[in-house]
Design brief:
By secondary structure, the protein is α/β, with parallel strands linked by helices. The chain folds into two domains: 291 residues, Alkaline Phosphatase, subunit A (3-Layer(aba) Sandwich); 85 residues, Arylsulfatase, C-terminal domain, CATH 3.30.1120.10. 30% of the residues lie in helices and 16% in strands. The protein has 14 helices and 17 strands. Strands 1, 2, 3, 4, 5, 6, 7, 8, 9, 10 and 11 form an eleven-stranded mixed beta sheet that branches. A four-stranded antiparallel beta sheet has the order 12-13-14-15, with helices on one face. A two-stranded antiparallel ribbon has the order 16-17. Helix 6 runs parallel beside helix 12. The structure holds calcium ion. Calcium ion binds next to loops.
């Protein structure tokens, strides 16, 4: 009888994903986890990713790659801020965690999340910086967050529900608060610290120390800066996120960033005003205007990344000074990628590579061989299970990702995923990107733009067309590929428990962002005689 119970217990533990390592290492203190998270930071802006344009040098972020592992194909499941965050916390797709879009979703904080499970496993847990999930954080011993999107200067923040005022530049403040918490934490426990930046989110307001950092450089342009979207779906042509049409005065810094004090504003204007005056006099139009905007955008966006890079350096130095570096896993990532002028765009949302791919760097002394590079298809969907696995905590069966720990050890399981499901929902505000879903493989993407006024399929072939400007869907040479990908898409939709009909309502029983009101229930048709 007893034996049968023991066998059952082992079976349950195995089903939950408790690794033998965690059982063996019971006496050892599990590693700390420092999750440094950014908002809209794209691989093209990180030097270790080897962007051909060589936009920026990021020595501190690169250090994580040199001392740890760089994941080259970490993809998101819904390329937008809030939904990505909800997916990281839950290890589930939007349609299961209920957070579909930034417009009208509210995170249901009563559901299972990995910080709650780590708390249960004995971790001290803290969240500092950008949260962006509307409801109050749950699962954290300590939280100190920006309300909503937050501001770049003198940010109002909320600490355990109480408003707090800060003076200074937000990226620096989030770093200060992170270090402060590390100093005051309960040292008897391992920790999870989620240090989450607003930067480099729109409207890309640089720190005063970085104004003019690039000496008015003229940036190399992406090949698709003037993409004409020929042969593509209306969904792509009819966007509202272009440098040619969407860029506001705040984006262009023709108006100063909000909430600066007098002293800050003076330094700000000393840099921007003379340049803005020159711009006004030049009366640029057409491609010249797009080029001016692109260069202004690069100065500002990359300056914001510079501050993040410095912040990473400060945190890594602190870990070393405190003797924490050896037993702390540092994970660096972003909630999605971003367009730096590719296809004429800024912003994210699309299934195309620049916004689909997020940076992911992991440093784990003693487990990850320094300088490792991994090209497996991984996802933000995998983070929750990875963190639980690192901690040796049980992994619930209903999470939809997969632990990256074997990959960190340099072992790719034979049955590692060959494809990933994607679904984006938010429309039409703010950027008129139509909802779409699709399947992504190493080489191909099959995409369906399905509403409200489109019903278009596209096939992308990254091998033949790395810039993703050609739709091969109707090309007879691809007929077999299209057929296979349709089958794979059907399989994935079933596997991830996607509702066959894309949802008409987001969380909270509200109509979907930008959709017309839901139709009233149809009256029963009278039977014709
Ligand atoms: Ca974001």
């Amino acid at each position: 009888m007893l034996l049968r119970w023991l066998v059952m217990l082992v079976a349950v533990a195995t089903a939950l994903g408790v690794s033998p390592r965690s059982a063996m290492a019971a006496e050892e203190k599990p590693p700390n986890i420092l999750f440094i998270f950014t908002d809209d930071l794209t691989c093209q802006a990180i030097s270790t990713y080897g962007e051909r344009r060589r936009l920026l040098n990021t020595p501190n972020i690169d250090r994580l790659a040199a001392e740890g592992m760089r994941f080259d194909r970490c993809l998101v499941t819904n390329s937008i801020c809030g939904p990505s965050r909800a997916t990281i916390l839950t290890g589930k797709y939007s349609h299961l965690n209920g957070f579909y879009n930034n417009s009208n979703s509210t995170f249901d904080g009563s559901q299972q999340t990995f910080p709650k499970l780590l708390q249960k496993a004995g971790y001290a847990t803290a969240l500092i910086g950008k949260w962006h999930l509307v409801s109050e954080p749950t699962g954290f011993d300590h939280w100190h967050i920006l309300p909503g999107q937050g501001l770049y200067y003198n940010p109002p923040m909320i600490r355990h529900g109480e408003p707090v005022k800060h003076t200074g530049y937000t990226t620096d403040i989030i770093t200060d608060l992170s270090i402060e918490w590390l100093q005051q934490r309960d040292r008897s426990k391992p920790f999870l610290l989620m240090s989450q930046h607003k930067a480099p989110h729109r409207e890309w307001a640089p720190a005063l120390r970085h104004l003019g950092w690039d000496n008015d450089r003229e940036y190399p342009e992406p090949e698709t800066l003037f993409d004409d979207y020929a042969g593509r779906s209306k969904a792509i042509r009819d966007h509202d996120m272009g440098l040619d049409r969407t860029f506001t005065d705040l984006d262009a810094k023709l108006r100063p960033a909000p909430n600066m004090n007098e002293e800050q504003l003076k330094a700000w204007n000393a840099y921007y005003e003379p340049r803005n005056e020159k711009f006004r006099q030049a009366k640029l139009a057409g491609k010249d205007l797009v080029r001016w905007r692109y260069n202004r955008y690069m100065h500002d966006y990359l300056a914001c990344v510079k501050a993040v890079d410095e912040s990473v350096g400060r945190l890594l130095d602190f870990l070393e000074q405190e003797g924490l570096a050896e037993n702390t896993v540092v994970v660096f990532s972003s909630d999605q990628g971003f367009y730096l002028g590719e296809h004429g765009w800024f912003d994210k949302r699309w299934i195309f590579e620049e916004s689909l791919r997020a940076p992911l760097l992991v440093r784990w002394p003693g487990v990850i061989k320094p300088g490792g590079v991994n090209s497996n298809l991984v996802s933000l969907l995998d983070f929750a299970e990875t963190f639980l696995d690192i901690a040796g905590a049980p992994i619930p069966n209903d999470m939809q990702g997969r632990s990256l720990v074997p990959l960190c050890r340099g072992e790719t399981p034979d049955d590692w995923r060959q494809s990933l499901y994607y679904h984006y929902y938010e429309f039409p505000v703010p950027h008129r990107v139509r909802p779409h879903y699709g399947v992504i493989t190493d080489r191909y993407k099959l995409v369906h733009y399905y509403k409200p006024d489109v019903d278009d399929w596209e096939l992308l072939d990254r091998q033949k067309d790395p810039l993703e400007t050609i739709n091969f869907y109707h090309d007879p040479a691809y007929a077999e590929t299209v057929k296979e990908l349709h089958a794979e898409l059907d399989r994935l939709r079933q596997e991830v428990q996607e509702t066959t009909e894309p949802p008409r309502r987001a969380y909270g029983n509200q109509p979907f962002a930008g959709e017309p009101p839901l139709p009233k229930p149809a009256k029963k048709a009278k039977k014709k005689a």
